[in-house]
Amino acid sequence: MHPNAQLIAQFYQAFQRLDAEAMCACYTDDIQFSDPVFTDLRGVQAGNMWRMLTARAQDFSLVFDSIEANDVEGSAHWVASYSFSQTGRFIVNDIHAKFEFRDGKICRHRDHFDLWKWSQQAMGMKGLLLGGLPFVQNKIRAQAAKNLQKFSSK
User: So where are the chain's domains?
Assistant: First the structure.
């Protein structure tokens, strides 16, 4: 297995244990992270996002597969299942990740998932009817940013 594929596996194994510090150790100090909710996190912000998510995780499980990597880039598929803390609804989020590497660490991490599908699970009928609208998706992003800012200030 390529060393960068092992690094990806190490990242997700740490995530399975809810070990945010071990996850962050896989990143460069200037990591760039993005997903449909947290669209541009850099450096310590990305680490704090994982710290917040792992600290708040309820009924959490994660599986991963399809890891591929070379010297420059990599990818993986992962599924996180958990209870969403704000509504108590159970989420199964199917995610495709892309990575870029530098000096034996992840320097860029981009997760892709269907935010509308996520909002349907998180908010039920309201998410089904309104979750595809940019206004609602921007509200989800704003709330997540507010939560991260509050968590980071502790």
Answer: 3-113
What's the distance, CA 100 to chain centroid? Answer: 15
pLDDT-above-90 percentage for the chain: 88
Residues 6+ apart with CB under 8 A from 42: 30, 31, 32, 33
Q: What is the DSSP secondary structure assignment for residue 59, as one 8-state letter? A: S
- Decide which of 3.50.30.40, 1.10.275.10, 3.10.450.50, 3.30.450.20 is the CATH code for 3-113: 3.10.450.50
Task: State the pTM of this model.
Answer: 0.94
User: How confident is the model over 29-38, as pLDDT tens digits?
Assistant: 999 999 999 9
